[in-house]
Each structure stands twice: as structure tokens, then as C-alpha cells.
């Protein structure tokens, strides 16, 4: 194996090597420093004259005299069923004090999007135990449903709650969670580890944690390691896997940082022009494959800079994924947890996973009615600010009160509270008793007669 001492330039996380033999894109590289230590890297770009290598551990200590060896292989993830219950670093190394993973296989981390011809339509309801998701924006097995949050909002707490509580009701098929944290602080990492261990959720989870002070290039690799692990568990061991990423904004910032080091022409707000393609390469690895028993469902979490939903990261994510769950600062200020705003939230695959035999026959109608009544009640808040509550009709007051009660009882729930879908729907019916039966225009009479609390008492 040849060693090259032809480093011409070092820029940020990149090392440029001249006069090499032909090398492959994404090939692994070892760089030997003058003190004998070795740093790992990967070929980022290759041409006849120059090879750009991105260094995983940072370029500190590398000089023009350092030796560069091209290893002739790409990054592979050692995978095994024994990974369940383990906490790993963003590079796949154990963080929990346990032994290294003894691999059953080593898989290329690049992966590929699922062939659309081979995709099976998602249809199975995943119960998260959170009413605003289960009742109003249902998550379906095989879906990719992002959570749009803002800085300082409790998206990590919601992610942990979903990781603890997510299940497919009535199914005995094995279910696992792959939790991928990117760019988090050491304090957040400790919180995640303690919560997984305290609740026992770690037994069915594989946790990857990339810290804020880890190299940017590692942040690019971490979600690919997580997805490769998820694909192995899903498609080779027939497990149903929920992949939770937090925070995709940190991942995109790493893309921008590396793009700047490569002196690429920037796109919108300085992010690389290929960011859409890069995100799609991750998100499109979710789904169900014909002939395979397992599935991969993705729940990416991203913080919108400045709470701007038109920012490139949420904007591009919205194009690729099947809806969004929006966390509202206004609800958070009211002390409501989880502060999920159902009005701009959407699950495009919800109708495939609800109804008789899946959740309950009245689910769609109750959800539509709650949306309608809550929207009308929120509109009336603006009117009250102008004319006062006394100027409203009796009907309008009921809708105004419904909006307040909906936030206080339906949206608000405990951090450890795991509601079944029946409890969620029954709670919605209880709130709908605040309105006149004649105002329940979205619900068929047969469901009113069967499920309305006043009718059931008769």
C-alpha cells in the first residue's frame, strides 16, 4: 500500500493530496502524523491532479510531511442483533462502557432509496401515546413524518417520549427504535442516556450520539450509520423500526460548513445547492419493501432558525416527507406540553392508517370535527380582542370555550402519560359535548348515536 507525502494544502476539515494514482470517491484514508498517530478520513472529491480528503477527527497536527494511505474500501457499518440496547458514538464506537460490536455483517453505509416499484403502501397505525399525533396527525408504519420545532422548545422531550411509547397496537411483531442524535451537547447526551436507561426503552433501542464538539464530517456519517443499522434490523431480521433523528438542522449546518471548506458555490442562505438531494438520500430510505416483513419509519426533528418555516431546511424537508408536526412557541409560553399546534400540522398518509380494524371507525370524522371547531374557536379569539366576549352569540362562545378546552385537555398531557387511541378519541368526544349536536357537521349521525357521551347515557 503506497504512502503519499504530497499534501499541498490543508483547509478546515479538508486535506488536498497531489500526484496520486486513481482513487475512488468516498474511499477511506489513513493519515499518519509525525508522532506516529493515525487520523482517519474519506475521499470527498477526486480528479487527475488533486484528491480532496475530509478528515474525521479534525486536521490539527497534520502537516505537509504527514503520510497519506488510500485503503481501497468505503465506510462499512458492523451490524448485529446484539446492537439492541447499546449506546454508540456518532462514529459507531461504544459509549456505554460495553464491548465493541461483534459483527454478523459489515454493510456499506451509503445505502440507496427504496425502488418505487418495490414499495408497499403504508397502512399500519403506530401509536405514539400523544393525542395530537395519534388523533389528529396519525403516524403510519413506513412513513416519514418530520417534527418542525424552534430553538428552546421541548422537541427532545417529545422525541424521548415517542421513543419510549411508540408501538403497533395488537401486533406481536418485533419493534425497535433507532435513535440518532446529531450535534447535541454533553448535557443533552447525559439526559438521553439516563432517560433510556431509566425507562427500560434502551432494551429495544440502538442509540447513536454525535456531540457538538465532534467533527462536522462525523455528523454527516452518523445518520447513515443509523439508517444502515435500521435497514439491517428491518429487512434481514423482519423488525419494524422507528428511526428518530434530532436535530437535522445540525446535520445541514455541517453540510454548509464542509461546502464552505470545499469552496463550493453556495445556494440559498449559504447552504449547498445539493442539500435537497442529500436530504432525500436519507429520507427516501424509509418505507416497506414488497416481500419483506420489516419496515422503516422515520421521525426527523429539526429546529427552524428564527421559527421560520420557509427556511431552506424545513422547506426542503417538507417537499420530501409526508407531512409535518409543528411545535408552537405560543403554546409553550402557555405552559402546555407537548406544545404541538395541530392547525399547520399534517400527516398525508393518515387516512391509510385509521378507520375500522385499524384505529376506530369514527376516527376520521372526530378528527375533522375537532380541526374545524378548534379553527373556528381560534378565529373568534381575534374577534374577542376587538369587540369583547360579551358581544359574541351563545354559539360563538361555545366554540371559543372549546378552543381553550381543546388546548388544556386534549393537547396538554403529562410527559409520562401514554394515551391509547381509544382514550384519545373518547377525550375528543368529551370535548365535543361542549358544542350543540347540530354543530357537529363533520360527523355522520350513526357515529354521534354510537359514541356521543349524551347519546350513550340514554
TrEMBL record:
Alphabetically, which GO biological process terms does the record hold?
Answer: proton motive force-driven plasma membrane ATP synthesis
Q: Which Gene3D superfamilies does this chain map to?
A: 3.40.50.12240
Entry GO terms, CC = plasma membrane; proton-transporting two-sector ATPase complex, catalytic domain
Ranges for the ATP synthase A/B type C-terminal domain?
A: 353-451
Domain of life of the native organism: Archaea
All copies of the ATPase F1/V1/A1 complex alpha/beta subunit N-terminal domain together span 7-72
Against CDD domains, the record matches this protein to: ATP-synt_V_A-type_beta_C, ATP-synt_V_A-type_beta_N, V_A-ATPase_B
Which compartments is it annotated to reside in? Cell membrane
Main location group: membrane
Entry keyword annotation includes Cytoplasm: no
How is this protein positioned relative to the membrane? Answer: Peripheral membrane protein
According to its UniProt entry, the function of this protein is described as:
Component of the A-type ATP synthase that produces ATP from ADP in the presence of a proton gradient across the membrane. The B chain is a regulatory subunit.
Which HAMAP family does UniProt cross-reference here? ATP_synth_B_arch
Q: What protein family does this chain belong to?
A: Belongs to the ATPase alpha/beta chains family.
Protein known as: A-type ATP synthase subunit B
Which organism is this entry from?
A: Methanooceanicella nereidis
Amino acid at each position: 500500500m503506497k504512502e503519499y507525502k504530497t499534501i499541498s494544502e490543508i483547509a478546515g476539515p479538508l486535506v488536498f493530496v497531489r500526484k496520486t494514482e486513481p482513487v475512488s470517491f468516498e474511499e477511506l484514508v489513513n493519515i499518519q502524523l509525525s508522532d506516529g498517530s493515525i487520523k482517519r478520513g474519506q475521499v470527498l472529491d477526486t480528479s487527475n491532479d488533486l484528491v480532496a480528503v475530509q478528515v474525521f477527527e479534525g486536521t490539527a497536527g497534520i502537516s505537509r510531511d504527514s503520510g497519506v494511505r488510500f485503503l481501497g474500501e468505503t465506510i462499512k457499518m458492523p451490524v448485529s442483533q446484539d446492537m439492541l440496547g447499546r449506546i454508540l458514538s456518532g462514529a459507531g464506537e461504544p459509549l456505554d462502557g460495553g464491548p465493541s460490536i461483534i459483527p454478523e455483517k459489515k454493510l456499506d453505509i451509503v445505502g440507496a432509496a427504496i425502488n418505487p416499484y418495490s414499495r408497499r403502501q403504508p397502512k399500519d397505525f403506530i401509536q405514539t401515546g400523544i393525542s395530537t399525533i395519534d388523533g389528529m396527525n396519525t403516524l403510519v408504519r413506513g412513513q416519514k413524518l418530520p417534527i418542525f420545532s424552534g430553538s428552546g422548545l421541548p422537541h427532545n422531550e417529545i422525541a424521548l417520549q415517542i421513543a419510549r411509547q411508540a408501538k403497533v397496537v395488537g401486533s406481536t411483531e418485533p419493534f425497535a427504535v433507532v435513535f440518532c442524535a446529531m450535534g447535541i451537547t454533553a448535557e443533552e447526551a447525559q439526559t438521553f442516556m439516563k432517560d433510556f436507561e431509566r425507562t427500560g426503552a434502551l432494551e429495544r433501542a440502538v442509540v447513536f450520539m454525535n456531540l457538538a464538539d465532534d467533527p462536522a464530517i462525523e455528523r454527516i456519517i452518523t445518520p447513515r450509520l443509523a439508517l444502515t443499522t435500521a435497514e439491517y434490523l428491518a429487512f434481514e431480521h423482519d423488525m419494524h423500526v422507528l428511526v428518530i433523528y434530532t436535530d437535522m438542522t445540525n446535520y445541514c449546518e455541517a453540510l454548509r460548513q464542509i461546502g464552505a471548506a470545499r469552496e463550493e458555490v453556495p445556494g440559498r442562505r449559504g447552504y449547498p445547492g445539493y442539500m435537497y438531494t442529500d436530504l432525500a438520500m436519507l429520507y427516501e430510505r424509509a418505507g416497506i419493501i414488497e416481500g419483506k416483513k420489516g419496515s422503516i419509519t422515520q421521525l426527523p426533528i429539526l429546529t427552524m432558525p428564527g421559527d421560520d418555516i420557509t427556511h431552506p431546511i424545513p422547506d426542503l424537508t417538507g417537499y420530501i416527507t409526508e407531512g409535518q408536526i409543528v411545535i408552537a412557541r405560543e403554546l409553550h409560553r402557555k405552559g402546555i406540553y407537548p406544545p404541538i399546534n395541530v392547525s399547520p400540522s399534517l400527516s398525508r398518509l393518515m387516512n391509510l392508517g385509521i378507520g375500522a380494524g385499524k384505529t376506530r371507525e369514527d376516527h376520521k370524522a372526530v378528527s375533522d370535527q375537532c380541526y374545524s371547531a378548534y379553527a373556528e374557536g381560534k378565529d373568534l379569539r381575534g374577534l374577542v380582542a376587538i369587540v369583547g366576549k360579551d358581544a359574541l352569540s351563545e354559539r360563538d362562545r361555545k366554540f371559543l370555550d372549546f378552543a381553550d378546552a381543546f388546548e388544556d385537555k386534549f393537547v396538554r398531557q403529562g410527559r409520562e402519560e401514554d394515551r391509547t387511541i381509544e382514550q384519545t378519541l373518547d377525550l375528543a368526544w368529551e370535548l365535543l359535548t361542549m358544542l350543540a349536536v347540530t354543530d357537529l357537521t363533520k360527523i355522520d349521525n350513526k357515529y354521534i348515536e354510537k359514541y356521543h357521551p349524551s347519546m350513550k347515557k340514554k
